[in-house]
Amino acid sequence: MRCNEDGFWELATTGTDKVAPVWQARGGEELPRLIGKGDHLTLVHNGYLKEMSLYVNGQWVDSIELATPFVATGGVQLGRAFLDDTYREYLSGAVDDVRVYNGAADPELIQKISLQTREQLSL
Fold first, then answer.
1. CATH number of the domain within which 17 lies
2. What range does the domain containing 75 cover?
3. Which top-level group of life is the source organism from (predicted)?
């Protein structure tokens, strides 16, 4: 997940985390909230369906079909990207309430988590 050149949230992925990969990007219709509570972003990797999906504030934005299973040789990166053998694209903002699940979350669960997160932020 990242903001594209036009400033919209998008799902961007490669088939590997090696140097000079080929990128696929989808989405790009939802602007990040610059003031207030921020956005609840969800990335779902479904290995069975070979797809990655982006949800913004509980709503599905887009999916990318993966031609092959994603092969990662390093850890999960939050707030930055590891591109061409170096860290780049640092997040200008804050990260809160990170969750990693063993399995693909369904749309109903994503909506419930997004609603819970927004309710907690309003307290």
1. 2.60.120.200
2. 2-121
3. Bacteria
Per-residue tokens: 107: 């749309």
Question: Where are the strands (E) in 1-123, listed by range?
Answer: 2-3, 9-14, 23-30, 41-46, 51-56, 59-65, 81-83, 86-88
Q: What percent of the chain has pLDDT over 90?
A: 7
What predicted TM-score, i.e. pTM, was given to this entire model? 0.77
Please answer whether residues 22 and 13 qualify as being in contact, where contact means their C-beta atoms are separated by less than 8 angstroms: no
Spatial CB neighbours of 80, under 8 Å, sequence gap ≥ 6: 87, 88, 89, 90, 91
Q: How far apart, in whole angstroms, are the C-alpha atoms of residue 23 and residue 14?
A: 5
Please state the φ and ψ torsions of residue 50, each to the nearest 5 degrees. 55, 55
Which pLDDT band, with edges at 50, 70 and 90, does 15 fall under?
low
- How many domains, in total, are found in the chain? 1
